[in-house]
Amino acid sequence: MKLYLDEDVSPRVAQMLRKRSVDAVSAHECGALGFSDSEQLRRASTDGRCLVTRNRDDFIRATLDAFAHRETHCGVLILTRNLPADRFDLVATKLAQYVRRHPDGLPAYTIDFLTA
Questions:
Q1: Which CATH number covers residue 40?
Q2: Which residue segment(s) compose the domain that 96 sits in?
Q3: What's the confidence (pLDDT) of residue 23?
Q4: Residue-wise pLDDT tens digits, 27-75
C-alpha cells in the first residue's frame, strides 16, 4: 500500500514512514498545498496511493463524488481525533502498522478510520 498524506498531516510523518520502508509522500512535498479535496484525491489515486487525512466529512463527500463520476480511487484513510496531530511518531507508527496489515491497499472507494 502506498500513501499520500493530505496537507493536514505533517510532512514529518511522511519522512518517518519512509524510514520505516513505507512508500509515502506528502502534499507538502508534492507542491500540492491549497489544492481542493477533489484534486488531492485525484492526485493520490492517479499515483495509486491511498489518501490519508484528518478531514473526514470533505473526503467522504469527495469519495461519493468520485464514485458517481467513476473516477479512479485508491481508498481514504481518516486519522481520528484520538490520534494527536502533533504526535508524529505515534501517527507514523500506526500508519506503518496499518500498511503492513493491508499490503495490497484498499478496495476502490473504501473509507477506513485509524485510531490511536
A1: 3.40.50
A2: 2-114
A3: 98
A4: 999 988 999 999 999 999 999 999 999 999 999 999 999 999 999 999 9
Contacts (Cβ under 8 Å, ≥6 apart) of 99 = 1, 3, 17, 22
Identify which of 35, 38, 36 has the alpha carbon closest to the alpha carbon of residue 76: 38
Confidence band, pLDDT 50/70/90 cuts, at residue 95? very high
Is the whole-model pTM more than 0.90?
A: yes
Spatial distance between the Cα atoms of 35 and 80, rounded to a whole number of angstroms: 22
Contacts of 4 (CB under 8 A, 6+ apart): 24, 25, 26, 27, 40, 43, 44, 47, 49, 50, 51, 52
How many domains is the chain partitioned into structurally?
A: 1
Give the integer Cα–Cα distance in Å for 89 and 20: 11
CA distance linking residue 105 with residue 116, whole number of Å: 20
| 3-state SS, residue 77 | strand
Q: Which 8-state DSSP code applies to residue 24? A: E
